[in-house]
Give the backbone structure.
Amino acid sequence: MLEVIKRLGVLVVFITLTSAANGQEVAPPSLKYVMTLTANLDQPYLVGDRLIMNVPSGVVTMADGSQGEIIEPAGEWATMYPNGVIKLDVRLTIKMEDQSLLLLTYSGKFLLNEAGLLKWQAGELITSEDCYFITNPLIRTQSESYGWLNSSVLIGKMVSVQPVNENGKPLYVTYDVYQVEP
């Protein structure tokens, strides 16, 4: 019986590879909303090409309505490239209302368009129309309630970011996170 299962597995792989080679298009993955995250940011400081920010607090709202908060330690260690792209490097600890802890890390890219650059320089609110800001969060947890996130592929898209400004507006970033489904 085991031999039959092995042969079937090889046959399925062969058929799949043959189908792909014959140009049959595979349906693209879809996205399922998981959460909205708002991270409050301290004033950034620059070390060489690194933009470093403490993330002292923030809130998370899951699709099912459960809530969490960002707790310290948390921060951003972005790298600024000469072409204007900012490579994101974020690590956050999230404490959910059931006391579950989620370690969220992500990389990503942030690039302002012309309108976004003008808003950034003026300290005005930036929205997703003003830039390319996409992340790929990874979540680790020991929680049974949120354990499914350990094996999920996630994509984040910025909703808004309030940059440094002279009006005393608090700095923050808000983005929505989606699970990639086959």
Remarks:
- Residues 27-181 form a domain with the Porin fold (CATH 2.40.160.20).
- The chain has a mean pLDDT of 91.
- The chain has one domain: 27-181.
- Residues 2-21 form the longest helix (20 residues).
